[in-house]
Amino acid sequence: MKVKPTLKTYSNNSMEKKYEVLKSICETRKSCRSFKPDMFPEECIEQILNIAHKSPYANGRKNWEVIVIREKPIIELMSKTVISSIENISDQMDQDLSFLFKNYSKNFTFFNKAPVIFIPIFRISPTIQSILKDNITPEMLLWERDNSVKSISCVSMLLILAAESLGLNSCYMTGPLLAQEELAQILKLPTGRLIGSIIPVGYCNN
Ligand SMILES: Cc1cc2nc3c(=O)[nH]c(=O)nc-3n(C[C@H](O)[C@H](O)[C@H](O)COP(=O)(O)O)c2cc1C
Predict the structure, then answer these.
(1) Probe residue for ligand 1, chosen from 27, 28, 30, 31 as the CB with the greatest number of ligand atoms within 8 Å
(2) Ligand 1 pocket, 157 CB below 6 A?
(3) How far, in Å, from the CA of 135 to the mean position of ligand 1?
(4) Ligand 1 centre and the CA of 127: distance in Å?
(5) Counting beta carbons within 10 angstroms of the beta carbon of residue 53, is it exposed (0 to 12), middle (13 to 18) or buried (19 or more)?
(6) Which secondary-structure segment (H or E) carries 194?
(7) pLDDT digits (tens, 9 = 90+) for 25-62
């Protein structure tokens, strides 16, 4: 006898399908560290941003946005700035440590090969600071800062999953943020805005 599907079986099936789609996106995603120069369809940028903007956020404040950089000279300047920051930091180290540090940071600058870079930026919402004023403790200040950092991490994660779902490759990068201040200047960020990550997006070379 043919069993008539109920509302429950329909919704179970569609939930299973959603899970399978998400699972395959998560399983195929891998960090890409070598990009082809080819540009991808422009509409993908908007699609990626649409998903990133669905991200959850702490403190009831959406204190972030995502900027998109396609201009090659700016991307190159950002990469050169990170390289010189690494040089400056390692110059102050003993030779052995300098060698280790340079080796560790070799994956902080390849974003210059990608055609587009997404940069989630945020500011620390002083919600609890405005309530407690002088009574705020260092622990609570750290907790408040962490909330903003955790929120922007969610944005970055959704962004790389969105890229993957469109057949694009990416890498979640915080290494370049060793040069946070210099990068913020290049990007002309308003005072108090912080860079959450650098996410190059494009087609992987391998
Ligand atoms: C917060 C965070 C920061 C990262 N920063 C860098 C980075 O600066 N350079 C880099 O090459 N990879 C970076 N990665 C990527 C990790 O190295 C990578 O996700 C990890 O090795 C697992 O590999 P998979 O992404 O291919 O699964 C970062 C990942 C996270 C979550």
Answers:
(1) 31
(2) no
(3) 38
(4) 31
(5) middle
(6) strand 194-195
(7) 999 999 999 999 999 999 999 999 999 999 999 988 78
Query: Atom 15 (ligand 1): residue with closest C-alpha?
Result: 172
Report the nearest atom of ligand 1 relative to the CA of 33. Answer: 11
Residue with CA closest to ligand 1 atom 5:
173
Structure-block tokens of residue 115 = 């055609």
Q: How is residue 136 written in tokens? A: 């705020």
**Span 173-198, pLDDT tens digits:** 999 999 999 999 999 999 999 999 99
Assess whether the C-beta atom of 110 lies below 6 angstroms from ligand 1: no
Angle of helix 138-165 versus helix 43-52 axis, rounded to 10: 140
Q: What is the CA radius of gyration of the chain?
A: 21
Is the CB of 33 inside a 6 Å radius of any atom of ligand 1? Answer: yes
**Which residue bears the tokens 């070379």?**
205
CA 174 – CA 39 distance, rounded (Å): 23
Any residues with CB less than 8 A from the CB of 60 and at least 6 apart, and which?
Answer: 127
CB-CB contact of 109 with 176 (8 Å) = yes
Which domains occur in the chain, in start order?
A: 7-202 (3.40.109.10)
Give kind and range of the element (H or E) at residue 200.
strand 199-202
Beta strands in 14-123 (DSSP E): 64-69, 116-122
* Tokens encoding 25: 């996106």
